[in-house]
Amino acid sequence: MRTEIEWVVQGIHEGFEGNLSIADFGRMARLSPCHMARLFHQETGLTPSGFLLAVRMEQARRKLLKSERSIADIADEVGYASLGAFTSRFTKVTGVSPGKYRRLSSLGSGIVDMVTGTEAPTYFTYGSVTGRTLRSDGLTREPVYIAAFPMSAVGRKATRCCRSGNSTDPWNIAHIPSGSWLIEAVSRTVGGGRHDVVVGQAGPFRITPGSVVNVDVVLSAPSKLRVIEPDRAQLGLAVPNLFNC
């Protein structure tokens, strides 16, 4: 990564709680704001504001999981003057509200939302997606984070996620409700060009009760990914460990 962009990345990590602007990003890089923005996107596949969002959401997630601070305090600590704005953004990015995220996390990482009031076996209520990831950068031992996103009612349903220990391992996402779903994957990479991550996308796929969909997801540079939910895609590209939910 270019030194100027590393300065911006470091500056965002150190000052994410502040009211950072495009002018601030330019000063960090010692470049004009427009030139810096072009370079940042070329180097990372993200806009500076998208990366800032990712860092803020990652910090908020960590605080929700590892502290007992109020959600209002956490919103302030990650740079949001308005609790409503923070709640809206967090919900759009992760699929659940901050309060629900904290409650679900206390039940364990494998918890899933069950259909209220149903006594039907899980197999007959949900479908699943299995697959493998393909990559050409040689980093087959690098873990891959895979998530399923609903195509409808985006932002109101929680994603289903999993982690593959390395790129050659098969993976499975179970307990996916009926509907159309998109699969996105992300993994870190080094020495493969201008980008720090490789990403992939497959679908949309139709999930029906009891169905098992098999897919191959090809990982490549972020610039080649056609995103359907920009905020979520940017978050995953910048902070892959959020997919380990």
TrEMBL record:
Domain of life: Bacteria
Pfam families in alphabetical order: HTH_18
Keywords: DNA-binding, Transcription, Transcription regulation
InterPro entries found in the cross-reference section: AraC_XylS_family_regulators, Homeodomain-like_sf, HTH_AraC, HTH_AraC-typ_CS, Tscrpt_reg_AraC-type_HTH
Entry keyword annotation includes Signal: no
Domain (HTH araC/xylS-type): residue spans on this chain: 6-104
The protein, known as: Helix-turn-helix transcriptional regulator
Lineage of the species this protein comes from: Bacteria, Bacillati, Actinomycetota, Actinomycetes, Kitasatosporales
